[in-house]
Structure formats: structure tokens, C-alpha cells
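pipeline/complex-builder :: batch 7 item 3
reading input block
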Amino acid sequence: MATSVVVGEEVMRNKQVIFKDYVSGFLKESDMQVINGTLKLKLPEGSNGIVVKNLYLSCDPYMRNRMTRVEGPSLFTSFTPSSPLTGFGVARVLDSGHPNFKKGDLIWGTTGWEEYSVITEVEGLFKIQHTDVPLSYYTGILGMPGLSAYVGFYEVCSPKKGEYVFISAASGAVGQLVGQFAKLMGCYVVGSAGSKEKVDLLKRKFGFDDAFNYKEETDLDAALKRYFPEGIDIYFENVGGKMLDAVLLNMKDHGRISVCGLISQYNLDQPEGVQNLMCLIYKRIHMKGFVVFDYYNIYPKFLDVMLPYIREGKIMYVEDIAEGLESGPAALVGLYSGRNVGKQVVLIARE
Amino acid sequence: MATSVVVGEEVMRNKQVIFKDYVSGFLKESDMQVINGTLKLKLPEGSNGIVVKNLYLSCDPYMRNRMTRVEGPSLFTSFTPSSPLTGFGVARVLDSGHPNFKKGDLIWGTTGWEEYSVITEVEGLFKIQHTDVPLSYYTGILGMPGLSAYVGFYEVCSPKKGEYVFISAASGAVGQLVGQFAKLMGCYVVGSAGSKEKVDLLKRKFGFDDAFNYKEETDLDAALKRYFPEGIDIYFENVGGKMLDAVLLNMKDHGRISVCGLISQYNLDQPEGVQNLMCLIYKRIHMKGFVVFDYYNIYPKFLDVMLPYIREGKIMYVEDIAEGLESGPAALVGLYSGRNVGKQVVLIARE
């Protein structure tokens, strides 16, 4: 279960969050276990991987999908039972056998839920060049969720000034950015979230035109009609299920739905059925799923846009940082009940 | 209930199919009634409508949707209880108060389910210029279903040579054409239909690479895996429900779904839920509904393509013609159980 790594003679303690076994139904903290392993911090001769010290780990909704046994080909492989979880994170390189990385580099990309990781698959890792912003941002606004928001909005939705935009899970890592992109473009933006605190955040901090707590609405269709009496041009889909059914009834003709995630469905053994697909025809709706990995090539362009936005305060960003690897399982579980306010990050080490 | 029209002194008998009242559940013949009305064949002074003698009427799946009371704005208005059904048809102009039409012209477009109709809304009517093909073709291959097949395949699916194409309700008015368009483009084409006779038609007459009877398949997912071991690039959706769920599991990455109709759902008071929408994300699927009316401007270009195809025998077309207005209700009901083989037409008069 535990790996063992030595720098010279040194064997380091390596605390890890272990994925116990495949999960069915709602994820529980007890599906994971924090253990003390050990690790050598030096790579074996001839390895072209890297050894890293993990600093921040990212809690992302898709991780639940990796906890189900996947039959057949899939976008994601399942986690390996009795091994550490993996996910996006920010880390410092301690040793490298790969020409693209050297000791001391900061990187973001897929790493382990543990204090130290040996990463043998370095494709998909990015070197962090700009450190005048918080490092944790590379798990969110400057990482996978930020790029998801960017491509899912600009590339998939073809937004135009003045359009009506609705975002579900709007205070999450992706949603809060999509809303601000839409405001910068001159759209009318409404978001849904699951608490009064989040609704306030959307309106006061992120500048949404309006927002509502979906948990307080007994009729989502009626709620959407209240906020969008003329209908929705663009729906940025993060949740699925009943919300999607209600949105379909409220789309405008030629509306666009960018399908980024369906978090309401990830803990269900059978997904809820979506009934109102007839609206796709009547309203000539264009619905498109996307995967951020397909757009990694535009990451440099994305950074060129985002860094000035952040430095100039044009885009705000809220994180919910859990301290210590031990808090990882609870932080991840909390994502699916919406306990987090803003992007959920786990801080492993400040260095 | 009956209209009354006179040519000079003459009052004509006008047999009509009356829509009795809003329908819930599966459409029955008894939801309609054939009556003998009367009609004057001369327009009143100052009218800018036209009077027509109906020759062929078209049975189209969407008509069931007009039999439900529609709340709020919709693509279609509901039929008016106690009035004749309306739908696409081919007719001869007997009198005209409109500059675009004169006595003797042949037209296709929306008319009444009756022997003679007064059409006050002439926008959306097309004058028939080519009569070297059967007139009934203007209810199908050269009418609304033909244009639907054309735009739904070429404009919505962006097909490429060698792609794998699946078509449901494949022997229907639209499906049979989409399959032949796809073959002409060099695609691999499989269709589903509801009887051995239709499956034979697909393979022998329309040149599909393969076809299957969905009613004989207990596991649609397994059936699709058998016919598309490498997956589906393009799905032309005519049915919805369980078939769509199975197709989603079998789409290739970056696949396209053109949503033309969902006939399996039209007689249900609550549509079936579609569960596998997560595939939209993983497989980066592009799903788009369309409405043929949006493409009426390309009808002349469409005719330029289709007429030579028909004359040269490059595209085959099968109709199922019911004789006489009295057979209309049964023909329309039969559409939803798949009783028709090919495009369902009702012949009113050979002139």
C-alpha cells in the first residue's frame, strides 16, 4: 500500500490518502483512509519521471467518476483500490530524470494525494512560470477549472454581448469564472448555488446580475421564468438532472448549452432521466459536451488573458482551503453536498 | 364545424377529417371524425387567400404534438377542437385572390384535411413547377420531409466520407433519404426499423450497409455494438427515448447527433428520461435540434439537387398511399405504431 523512497540514505514519511475500494452511491469519508507510508526522494538511475513535494491538491467533481469501476473504454481510468487517489495539484520538483523539468521547478498537473509523489507520466504537466499570484491558483483559476471555464464559455457557447446567460453551480471553481467572463462580455448573468452565502457571493463579489438558491426553489422552471422572463441564450451546465430539465423549458430559440459537468449525477447509481429533450428541436438548441484536455494547446494564450485580469482585479476568485492532507477526504466529500464556498483546495505544505 | 363555399350558385360537398378534442396518451382513430361539410369554391371579394382542391395529404409524426393542448409559446399551435386537422399536402388552386397564385396552379404546403380548403395564410406555400415526378412526392421526398433529411444531414451533421452513420426510423419518409444521402457521400450506413419487411427494404432497395429490427432486440446497446464495433460518428435521431440512450453509449468521440424527431415520445403523457447524457462530455458530442422551416430559403437549391437524383434513379423513394380521406385517421394513427412502410400519404383525389 505504501511506497518507499530514499534520498541517499534518507527514507521520508509519506502521508497518503488511500482509495479503499470502488464506491457505489454517495461518497463517504470512510471510502478513503489516511495512512503513513514512506518514500525515497531520489529517482532510480535511468528513470525519466520526476519526484515532487505536493503543495496543493485540487478537489474536482470528476474525481467521483474515477471511483466507480469503469467497464470498457472511458475518458478516465478508475482509481486503483488500495492506492493513493490522484488528481490535479501544485508541486515542487525534488528530483528529475526528464529534460523538461529540473529540481526546484514548480509544476501543476496530475499528482498523488500524498506528501510526495513519483510522477512517471509527465505529459500534461505544466511548469509554473508566474509566481506573483498565489500558487493555489494553479489548481483553479489558472489551472484545469479555469481553462474549462474559458473554453467552455468562449469556444463552445459563441457568446455575444447582451445575451442572457445562466450558470449552475455558479460559485464553484468553474462557475464563478464563467459568470465573470460573461459579465466582461456584456451579457446578463444569473447563477444558481446552494446557500444564501453563495448567492451573496455571486451578486456582491462576482458581479452577477442576479442569483438564487436552488435548494429554496420548489419549482425550478418557475424560478428560471422569474429570472429569465425572455429566456436563456446560453446555459453553462455544471449539474445536470432536474436543473437541465428546467433549463430546457426556458431556453431561447437557437440557444446554446455547454456541458461541462453533471455533478448532481455523479453519486447516483442510475442517472436521473432528462425528459425535455423535445425542446432541442422546437428551440433549435445546440448542446455540446467538451473536455478541457482537448484545449491544452491554448493554455499559453489563456494565461496571457487571465494573468492581467487577476493582476488588475478584473476577475475575482474565491477559494475554500482545507488545511492538511488529513482534511482531504472530508473536503472531497463536501464537494458533492456543496459544503465548499468557492474552489475547494487542500493545502498540503507551504514549503 | 363545417365551412360552406359556393362557386357562383354552387355549394360543394366538402368531406373533412375533424379533430374532436385534445388527446392524451396514444392517438386513436376515434379521436378524429370524418364528416360531410359543404363549401363555396369562390373567394369573397377582396380576399387575398386561395381556394384549393386537395389531392394528397401528408401524415407526419409532428402532427401528434399539435393534438396536445400547448401551454405558452410553442413552435406549433395546437389543432382547434371540432375543426379539420391541418397538415402538409398537395393541392390544385381553384380560385385565388393572391398575386403569387392563379387558378390551375399546383401547390404544396399547409392545407386542411378535407376535400377543399380555403387557405388564408399563403406564406409557406410553394408552387409546384416540375410535374414529371409523381405529385405525391411533394408531400415527401420533394417536400418538408425531404428538405428535413437534406438539412438535417448535410447542414447539421457535417458528414465526411467514410464516417459511420446510424439512422433510426430509417424506412420512414426522412430516414430512407438520409441513408441514401449518406451512402452517396461514401459513409457506412446502418438503419433501425420495426419489421422484417422494412429491414429488407433498407438493405435491398435503399442500399444501407446493414439494418436491424429494433423490436427483436432485447438490448439495444448490444445491438449497436454489433453493428458499430468502432462506434457511431453520426446519429440521425428520429425516435428518442431508449434508442437515444443506447446510441449515446455507442457514439465515437466528437460524434454528432442531429435531432430531427422523437416519435417514440409523442404519445406519452410524460416523456421517458434519457440517462446517458454524461456521454456528451466524455465523447465531446455535439447534439443539435433543428426545424426545417428555418431552411425554407434553400428549397430551390434542394430541388436542383433532388430532381436529377430522382430522374436518374440515384435515389429511391417508397410511399405508402392510403386511398381516400376516410382512410386518413387510420393512416395517421398507424404512423405511431409503425404500420406504414415508407412515407405515409393519403390520396384524396387524382383530379
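note: The domain at 144-293 of chain A is CATH 3.40.50.720 (Rossmann fold).
queue -> next item
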